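HOLO CASE FILE
Compound: 2-oxoglutaric acid
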Amino acid sequence: MYRCLSCVIVANVCHRGFIQTFCAQKVNVFTQRKMKFLSKEQKLFYDENGYVVLDILSSAELEEISAEYDLIFRNKADQNLDATWQGSWNYTKDEGSNTVVQSIHGMQMHSAVFSRLLLHPRLLDACEDVMGTSNVLLHHTKAHLKPPGKGSPFPMHQDYHYFPFKNHSMVAVFFNLDDSFPENGGLCVYPGSHKLGPQEDVSDNPDYHYLNKDKFPLEAATPLTLKKGQVVIFSYLLVHGSYPNSSDRVRRMFLVQLRAAEDDPVEQVHRSACQGLVLRGVNARRDADITKRISGE
Ligand SMILES: O=C(O)CCC(=O)C(=O)O
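Model generated. Tokens follow.
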């Protein structure tokens, strides 16, 4: 609740992170939220470019996450982990090369290290700033490990096509567990592309989504060179992809997708472990209907 000069006003958060206020005089003004973690420059950079690179983790936190990540991947090495995207974009398959990206979803179901990370106070402060809401819900998590020399690329895409929401509040929080750069399969982006809105999905495979290579060639994207431990937060509308890992170094990442409690899915797709868990604030829309207690809705 925010107080106008002389009267009590009600505050709502719009999808761009501004507080819409209505005072007794029926004045309707937008004011910037008070930042908790981001500087004004970082917030402006995010609004303009659709992503921001942040230093959030301490080296002790990074070490713990990194060791636990390796342990989980080692213990699951005999399972089916390859998540290389399918579809006609996949030039590596056409050329007969055999790339892989090992993927484990729902890392918080494997270890409490990742459950704790989801509640990291500085991380959630940063997410509040970027998302413009105090009510932050988990959508899903995943880890991608691109092995040296044969790590799969990801075609340019918007995460939107996998799980569309009405107000586009969804962000990805991409933790780089290794130094990452183009040669070891690092991330690349089209800065500002989040402002274009949803772009045409040209995939010929219903389980994968990607954009027209002529409109968004991988070669024209901006590579992000990141230090290990750095976190990139980006809008699910940002056009992004990543390079093959042709280096002699591994590229490991952990990714969390978050959304505002005030937003609604366009359709019920991409259900996953712990979806809807309240990480910050409240979910006032959550039903308490006793008949739904088993289904978990
Ligand atoms: O692991 C990567 O390099 C990119 C992953 C990605 O963009 C995605 O899964 O949406």
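CASE NOTES: DSSP finds five helices and 15 strands in the chain. Residues 40-292 form a domain with the Jelly Rolls fold (CATH 2.60.120.620).
CLOSED: yes
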